[in-house]
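Quick start: read one record
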Amino acid sequence: MFGWNLLGATKWALLPGIWNEGRAKGAKMVYVDPFFNQTAAKADEWIPIRPGTDGAFALALGHEIVKNGWQDEEFIKNYTVGFDKYAELVKDKTPEWAEKITSIPAATIRRVAQELAATKPALVDAWSGPGHHTNATDGGRAIAMLGALLGQYDKPGTMISRQAMGGKRRAFNVDKPKAARIDGLGTKYPFAHVSGIYTEIRDAMLSGQPYQLRAGVFMFQNFVMSVPNTKKNIEALKKLEYIVVFDTMMSETARLADIVIPGSHYLERWEVNVNWVTFPATAIRQPAVKSVINGMTEQEFILALAKKMDLKDKDGKSLPATYPEYISDQLKNGPIGKTLDEMLALPGAVFIGGATQYEKYKKNGFATPSKKVEFYSEQMEKKALNALPEFVEPIYKPTADFPFYLVNYKQAEHTHSRTFNNDQLMEMKPDNPLLINSTAAARLGLKDGDAIWLESPYAKEKATIQVTERIHPEVVALQHGYGHWGFGKIARGALNKTNTWCPAGTADGAFLAGVSEKASGMAVHKEIGVRILKA
């Protein structure tokens, strides 16, 4: 497991139980992360790695597997392309080569490779640890290739291709914008997620290039705190003429808005949930309580706005009168083929589209141009990206002036930056001291609880330190989401002597460059060098 705190940052609450059941049956976990978090505590082995070097570790594991002939020849022959080129790539990616980059001992790399290759079934997975760096695509592909080498895809106990069941949305009949996308999705960032590249949108607000944005609508998004480089985010919003924010709190972004629309709580909403499970499943979330302000949900507001603008659907038909009718239409015309009432009649209002299907690639192939796992990607080569999953050094590494890696992390007490006005959660975890290894703290003459200045090339903020053995000696870390000066009185902390709010904790996003990874457009949240000065 590379950089995914699945037992602490519980975005999917079912996973801790699954892991505990697996461990009871003899499953073993090796956890790779600079920080010893809740998942590392439940793993059999913690491997502290230098941030942004996961790809080098994965290539060295691949070197050992190929050199010793441990790969699954049958799977590689029938379901992959480019293995010979990959084998040539990893020929010199020895454990000794990787040790210099990752700080992981060569002997550890050899042992882990042997154990991984000898274990069936095996799962190799990664999340935001490697994914929040400037080399995320190359590193992520190097990790993904390990499952392909061992034929451990879409079989029980391995990485499963997801079988989603979703409705078909009823599109509004509106003209597409004539101007080009301002964020470079599909052009500058050829493999970006459809949600867009926030750093590019922010930079276009600032520069006015390729054209000046004039208005912004933010829904379920505290733009100021969520996008890296807080200072630039605020400056960018001030360039807009008109800002609308939907939120349940007066967030930092809402405080800069012209109009704030009260957001809804999930217990107040109708929603279609496509579940992240290994079998096709769709569920209906339905209101359990009425709106305490007698307001609209976000979906109801957008539907009402569309009707006020007299929009039709793409077939020229009038839009449904209510949002539940919209959902029913979506479900009926999608792969499920059931109305909302028919869904609600099912146990738990959940539609199960069948059991988990394994080895689907034998019938349908993989979601690549070749329909196979691509050790060598021609489509990436055509976009002037690395065709092979080569190791590329992170761009924002520590320097002599800024000698520590700064990373962020998440834990179960909070979710992203959303939960910091909850008094019970803030009582559990009221702030986020900067974690620093005891050897580094001693070298700087610092002790537990000392006040310090944390500085990067982009920001300088106060923090306190927590001395620990639970972090790589070259790395310091902040829990993500703290440092609010909006979002409610609990999130803001306390009043100081000048009657202004002192934020609870330190905002990690302030220290970052505010860039995105070159292929995926993913914002870079875990890559910057910082220095520590005693306050």
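The chain is about 30% helix and 15% strand.
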